[in-house]
Write a structure and sequence with these properties.
80% helix, mainly alpha
Length: 234
């Protein structure tokens, strides 16, 4: 059996790990690219990365931290929610692990970029212009991989949101926003695939709102609030 104090401990742990995922994700997927990537300009992008290798490497470390933290987050959430519905809890974990595997494989492109900008001896036979073009190719490839990952970032939220909605000890409205956030990610994937500069559109900002509310909301709720309506036992 799992008592109230144990459940609250698991919830606090999940909230803390979720916060770590959010912070490391914002740094690696938003802050670092904003500082280093100039879309459409391979020369300036290569120069920025080359001049800020420490920041670029910190972005790699931060993304690895995000992915490893996500593994432990899935385990903590499974511990907390599997009695609500085991099928959905397992689905949540499996989809989450698929997204992690996909992200890790996609990170190979970042190490390719690192090889190019650090200037290995065997690259001396390639012109600077070619290196800049290849670097930008890998940057584009990486973000195509991130776009594909968004499908799984969305899909795992649906069983997670359902479990939150049905739990009886977590706010139903957060479960609703998490499930709605699933579709926001999938729409973002389709939008980025077919529309140039989709992320700069007002529509992209609007469809991302439910996910922002759901994920940040559940993160803070788990971290701060008591789950004092617990109805299930291990």
């Amino acid at each position: 059996m799992i008592n109230l104090n144990q459940k609250n401990t698991v919830a606090r742990l999940a909230g803390f790990i979720y916060l770590l995922v959010v912070i490391s994700g914002i740094f690696s997927l938003m802050y670092v690219p904003k500082k280093l990537i100039v879309w459409g300009d391979s020369q300036e992008t290569t120069q920025k990365i080359s001049s800020n290798l420490y920041l670029f490497k910190l972005g790699i470390v931060s993304e690895i931290l995000m992915l490893f933290s996500f593994i432990f987050l899935l385990l903590a959430l499974y511990k907390l929610l599997h009695k609500v519905n085991k099928y959905h809890a397992v689905s949540m974990v499996v989809i989450g692990l698929v997204s992690i595997a996909l992200n890790f494989s996609n990170m190979v492109t970042k190490f390719s970029i690192l090889t190019l900008v650090e200037g290995r001896n065997y690259l001396s036979q390639i012109s600077a212009t070619q290196i800049e073009a290849i670097t930008m190719f890998h940057v584009d490839s990486y973000y195509h991989g991130i776009n594909l990952s968004q499908v799984f970032w969305g899909l795992w939220l649906f069983p997670f949101g359902y479990l939150v909605f049905k739990s009886g000890f977590l706010p139903k409205f957060l479960g609703f926003f998490l499930m709605l956030g699933c579709f926001g990610y999938i729409i973002a994937f389709i939008g980025n695939l077919f529309i140039v500069d989709y992320n700069k559109t007002l529509f992209a900002e609007i469809v991302s709102i439910p996910d922002s509310i759901g994920e940040l909301g559940i993160c803070l709720w788990l971290l701060i609030m008591d789950t004092n309506q617990f109805k299930f036992s291990k």
